[in-house]
Write a structure and sequence with these properties.
- The protein is of the alpha/beta class.
- It contains eleven helices and 15 strands.
- It has two domains: about 220 residues, Aspartate Aminotransferase, domain 2, CATH 3.40.640; about 120 residues, Aspartate Aminotransferase, domain 1.
- The strands form four sheets. Strands 1-9-8-5-4-2-3 form a seven-stranded mixed sheet, with helices on both faces. It has a three-stranded antiparallel sheet with strand order 7-6-13, with no helix packed on it. It has a three-stranded antiparallel sheet with strand order 12-14-15.
- α1 packs antiparallel against α8, α3 crosses α7 and α8 packs across α11.
- It is globular, with a radius of gyration of 21 Å.
- It starts with 10 loop residues before the first helix and ends with a helix.
Length: about 375
């Protein structure tokens, strides 16, 4: 039993689109399926402008470049390594701030303490799909004239107060990696706020090319291919089904584990419509095993959980020398990384298999 299992639609629904690709022999470079997927994705997610990409990390790198950032970027140490790598590969300096325990997202109070004349942006993460404090982060960005970018890799389809979380900030980026609640094998997307911003994004995703003879920027090859777009089109039709399967798994875990000593759940934030991408728990000192001990016990029973996110990004060799990376500056994130464990959750996880997980966690 793995920590996740990618949803795949019926193959016979995908085959007609693949046959069209074979007939046209148009495999990439904004083919008809790419264009159709972009339009349907925009409507599905209720976002103004969206650009499908080859993967989620490229999406974030392109968004950072389009935002024309410089100097220091305030971000979270509690994320997948792609978040900070995208900042560093853009020749920018990540400045880590601590998180809040209740939603494991950036603490706006800590953000404000770290803003200096070198700060050009905030790159926040909707961790596990839990929305950041959208209003307070936007207020900080506005008051200090900062760009606000969201790594929304976990937040496909998530809504907060009736509105897509992807509509917040200057740019939001998605990942459609195989492990995500919505996948196209590999893929991603960038959400922009204006036609002009989308135009810049699309140019940067295509080597900086404007037309057949004009190259105006040092871009990348970040375009989505036709196969991934084809899969994405079919996946959109099945997302509600996959989401409902995950919701049922989430509900059974919460009912079974909410009173287990030493197992602390992360509540779904109020007014949030989640996608149930992950089921993280904190394994605290009251539990009969350490977090790593529970991880090994589950593994011995053929159950793969994940210490996600561990190690903390600020402890990695390329980042640990930064002043903001000192553990004393990040007590909540440090503790979370030492206690977190993501339990198996996917759309067709059987009740019998879920019960095997629950039994091991019981006192």
């Amino acid at each position: 039993m793995f920590v996740t299992r990618p949803y795949l639609p019926p193959l016979d629904e995908l085959l007609p689109l693949l046959e069209g690709i074979w007939e046209r022999r148009w495999l990439t470079n904004h083919g008809p399926l790419h264009q159709r997927f972009e339009a349907e994705l925009r409507n599905f997610l209720s976002t103004p402008f969206i650009s499908p990409t080859a993967n989620g990390m490229l999406a974030l790198e392109i968004a950072i470049e389009a935002a024309e950032l410089s100097g220091e970027i305030i971000t979270t140490p509690y994320s997948f390594v792609a978040t900070t790598h995208a900042i560093r590969r853009s020749q920018l300096t990540p400045v880590f701030v601590d998180i809040r325990r209740d939603d494991v997202n950036m603490d706006p109070h800590r953000v404000e303490e770290r803003i200096t004349e070198k700060t050009s942006a905030i790159v926040a993460v909707h961790c596990y799909g839990n929305p950041c404090d959208l209003e307070r982060l936007q207020d900080l960005a506005d008051r200090h004239s900062l760009k606000l970018l969201y790594d929304a890799a976990h937040a496909f389809g998530v809504r907060h107060k009736g509105r897509s979380v992807l509509a917040s900030g200057d740019f939001s980026t998605l990942s459609f990696h195989a492990t995500k609640a919505f996948n196209t094998f590999e893929g991603g997307a960038i959400i922009s706020k204006s036609a002009s911003a989308k135009s810049v994004i699309d140019q940067l995703c295509n080597f900086g090319i404007t037309d057949e003879v004009t190259i105006q920027a040092v871009g990348a090859n970040a375009k989505m291919n036709e196969f991934s777009a084809a899969l994405g089109l079919i996946q959109l039709m099945h997302f509600a089904h996959a989401q409902e399967g995950r919701r049922k798994v989430d509900k059974r875990y919460r009912e079974a584990l909410h009173n287990v000593p030493g197992i602390e759940l992360i509540d779904i934030p109020p007014e949030t419509e989640p996608n149930y991408s992950y089921f993280p728990v904190f394994v605290t000192e009251e539990f009969r095993l350490s977090r790593d001990g529970l991880y090994e016990e589950l593994k011995s029973h053929g159950i793969m959980s994940r210490r996600y996110f561990y190690p903390l990004l600020s402890t990695l060799p390329m980042y640990r020398s930064f002043e903001s990376a000192a553990p004393a500056n990040l007590p909540v994130a440090t503790r979370a990384a030492e206690q977190i464990l993501c339990l198996p959750i996917y759309h067709d996880l059987s009740e019998a298999d879920q019960d095997r997980v629950i039994e091991i966690l019981m006192p």
